[in-house]
Amino acid sequence: MAETITIIEQDRIEAENILEQFLTDRMPEQDFTKGGALRDFVVVALANIFAYLRAERDLVRARQSLLLLGRLTGTSADDAVDEILSNWFIRRKTGQVASGSVTVTLSRAVDVEIATTTKFYKTSSLLYYPDTLENTFYSADDLLPVIDSSGAVAAYTFSVPVYASQAGTQYNVTPGVFADYTRFSPYVTRVENTADITGGGGNETTEEMLVRSETAITVRDLNSSRSIDATLKDEFVNVDDVIVVGYGDTEMIRDLIAVEITNTRIHSGGHVDAYLRMPILANQTVESIVGGVFTDPREGYYILRDPTIFNEGDPGGGIPATDFTSFGVTVGDILVFSNAVENYEANSFIIKEVTPYGLYVAKRTPFPKAMPVIEATYNDGSLENVGALNTLTSANNEHTFADSYYYQGGDKGKYVRIVSSGEPRYNLGTGRIVFVDTVLNRVTLEGLPYDFVLETDVEWELLTRQVSYTVGGNSPTYNDNISEGPNTGMLGTPRHSGEFTKTVQYDGRVMLPFHPVYRITDVSFPGGSFPPALIDTDGRVRFSNRVNVEPVEAFTASELQYQVIGHNPGEVPSGWQMLELDIGWATDKTYFNGQTLRVTYDTLSGYDAVWTFMLGTSRRILCGSVIPKGLHPVYLTLDIRYRPSKIATVALDTTAAAAALAVHVNEFNVIEDLDMSDIFSFLRTNYPEIGFLEPAPIYYQLLAPDGRVLYFKTDDAVTMDPAKIIDPRYGVLPDPTDPTADQYRMDVPEGLGVSNNTVRYLTVVDLITFTNLEG
Amino acid sequence: MSDKFDIHIEGMPLGVATSVRSITFGAYPRSLGVRGPQKMVDRFLKCLMTPIGSDLSDPEYGTPLAAALLRSTVPEALQSLAVRSVAAAEEKIREYDSTYGLPERERLRSVRIDQIHIDSEGQGVVLELTLENTAGEVVKTLLPQIVGT
Question: Which DSSP string do the residues of A402-415 spell out, in sequence order?
Fold first, then answer.
């Protein structure tokens, strides 16, 4: 390492004084005072060398001390800090990469696939890549038409999320056209970013590194605030800040166990939430089938489904259409798992929720595992009802039935499940093998709800473990609602066609992605054959009103509503969140089922990687549940009412001011409370064109973890004080005597894990308006 | 403070001295230690012939005389400079003397220029000085002609 030793005058003076004192003591007869020749030859000459050695000694000493190194500057000091901190495996963080989105304009509506290796050059030296894990397909139907002044479609556009190829602030760029790009379609006419690409940062400074090192030198496990902070900041450049909530913190609700009888809630401990402050990744999209099946990402199987219960019915009327709501099951009834392993598996479960597609039991007391257990799947089933008995033949001998009991190595006693059938109203179900005909390679089945209709080439499964169950409220048998038998007449004995699963399904709803979902900016699907009155100008059915209650029927496009529902507020927003978006009308829940709904939203850049890291088998805490969460987003709506300065020579650029103000709010020091004076101070400092700012309240919206939007208004600091919550219909505190105002109430924010510590104040240009009071 | 000895220096002989080489230990078999008035004269001589700014620990130590001899200086200016340089050296030596509390015989009371001879061709100067210490002793000294190079 090149090093420069600098001797300052003070060093030399001190060296001369020391040498003079030393020589005078050793040689008292000689005169070493200033002005003498001896001093020149002995003291002054040696002082320079002496001063040099002292400076070098001080430098070496400083390089061994982080305290002293913090006062030094330059590359050598940086290198020295790197070397010392490397002894504790602390590395200098590389800078963050900028991210944003680019808008691609096409001359034709064609399908486009963007490979992950596609390059977008803002300039010859500023390269960006698509911010996706896989190649992304953009259907021609999803392109946004650009309408010219004559009303004709002039072009088509779509957005691609991008990230910078390297870290650095130079990748933060303002809107504008991209210079070049990989040719992924011959119809591309233009690539541009219409919003800032932001988030890029330089390498960690020595000062920042030293501050971080104070907490970094700790146990590198995810088991304390210090170590979680240190580990995450060390591993992920995108983690700007970490707020840890654990046992005893008021915001901790994930460890609550409810005692339902007394409505008591007990903190069990063992849970830690690491709230992350990370860059915002805007305009992410996800497409899902409305009313489709979604799998809960969490551990545990707590839903019972049964394909023979969800029955679309016989058009002839022989079999009625049924689902789980057809049998009088209510919350609190008991589900008996009849073939539970004694002394090992629970056999009774309290029903917590009844939906058409399944029965839900408590997530904390789930079923033992995913069932049924399938030994093999075949496709040669030949079904026939012979002598009032249902029989299945393995017509192509894909399986050879053995005429002995399963514990003897045979097939008797096992179960057969008919998976798919052309006659689902009759032929679906699970039956027990009671007889084996080895000559015909045929088995006789019991327990199926209906007699088979003759059918061949049916897919069937051989089960080694089935779910036999009953449901009822009649103690002790609990079988008066669902049991074996046809839907028109339950027999009371166990039904064998149950499935223990964690796949959820609700009419009119889609599941949102399993990571923080911040602002939702678009909810829509192609208009297709829906009434023209419901279709927006771009040809899509667009749901532009977010509400806190179940959507109601709409008659015009502008009335379409959607609701977000958080099933597990303690785990929202995180990788375990069960956040649904409901567009189904209360009066016709299935109206939009089957549509491919596209949801555009903002999220946290890099969150998924942190989630995988923290819950990975090598780093997770074995005796606790430690998960990363996003801070609860709070969006500020700002109406800046101003008069221009009398001495201003140019008009206020409100677009630029709004953009700058958004950055100011989003990067505001979270330790301080944000209030209108901070905003006014920022505007006065940076925009001399403003002469007068009219005092005004700040309106802000919490995207609560239960899916609601809660509205606040304040004349002072922006906080989560419940006294600042308003009913947006009236602009005042929600009336506690008005049941319709309950949707806007949050009397105890901590009850949802919300506090001033766990929220993040944000805004966007769209939410900022400037009003010139002089017109 | 007892009268400690310093190492003796003296002006170089006429014809040998230059503006950058004007002081010598003298033509003795070994260096000499000096005390008393001679030590005072040595200190004065060294200060007078040290270019100002060349002492890193005291940039104000020295006089402009030696530096002036390096340049082409008109005789009238050289004479004026020599007078000012003698006064500057006197002031600096007296400042040092008061700082260290030297014995009376080594402390400078005053310097008087008896004669200045300027060599108009060789850019040299000859100074005849009278130095008096605080003990009242008087020492006359002759600085030989120093030639600029």
Answer: -SSBGGGTSSBT-E
Which of A51, A39, A47 shows the shortest CA–CA distance to A8? A51
CA A629/CA A227 separation, integer angstroms: 16
- Please identify among residues 6-45 of chain B the ones whose CB lies closer than 8 Å to any CB of chain A: 6-9, 33, 39, 42-43
Token pair in block for residue A697: 């309240």
Torsion-angle region of A606 (φ positive above 0: left; ψ -120 to 50: alpha; else: beta): left
Instruction: Look at residue B2 in the predicted model and tell me its pLDDT.
Output: 57
What is the ipTM metric for this complex? 0.87
**pLDDT, averaged across chain A:** 90
Distance from the A45 Cα atom to the nearest Cα atom in chain B, whole angstroms: 10
When pLDDT is averaged across residues B28-34 and rounded to a whole number, the result is 85
Within a 10 A sphere around the Cβ of A345, how many other Cβ atoms?
12
Cβ–Cβ contact B107 with A under 8 A: no
Which residues in chain B are contacts of A42 at CB distance < 8 A?
A: none
The pLDDT value recorded for residue A568 is 93
Asked whether the beta carbons of residue A44 and residue B96 sit closer than 8 angstroms, the reply is: no
Report yes or no on whether pTM surpasses 0.80.
no
How far does B61 lie from chain A, in Å, by closest CA? 8
Where are chain A's structural domains? Answer: 9-63, 97-193, 206-279+608-630, 281-293+506-603, 299-367+467-501, 372-465, 632-772
Contact criterion met (CB < 8 Å) for A12 and B42: no
- Say yes or no: B61 contacts chain A, CB-CB below 8 A: yes
Q: What is the pLDDT of residue A639?
A: 93
**Taking 80 as the threshold, does the pLDDT of residue A315 lie above it?**
no
A546/A560 Cα distance (integer angstroms): 9
Q: How far apart are CA A333 and CA A352, in angstroms?
A: 8
Which residue in chain A has the smallest CA separation from B90? A35
Q: What percent of chain A has pLDDT over 90?
A: 61
Nearest chain B residue to A37, by CA? B7
Smallest Cβ distance to B6: which of A36, A47, A48? A36
Average pLDDT over residues A600-617: 90
3-state secondary structure of B81: helix
Contacts of B11 in chain A (CB under 8 A): none
Q: What is the mean pLDDT of residues A365-372?
A: 94
Answer yes or no: do A35 and B55 touch at CB < 8 A. Answer: no
Q: Does B58 touch chain A (CB under 8 A)?
A: yes
β-sheet bridge partners, residue A628: A274
- Selecting from A9, A37, A44 the residue whose C-beta is nearest the C-beta of B9 gives A37
Architecture per CATH, B6-146: Roll (3.10)
pLDDT tier at A492, thresholds 50, 70, 90: very high
Q: Give the number of A-B residue pairs with CB atoms closer than 8 Å.
A: 54
The string of pLDDT tens digits covering residues A154-193 is 889 888 889 999 888 889 888 899 999 999 999 999 999 8
Q: For position B19, what pLDDT does the model report? A: 62
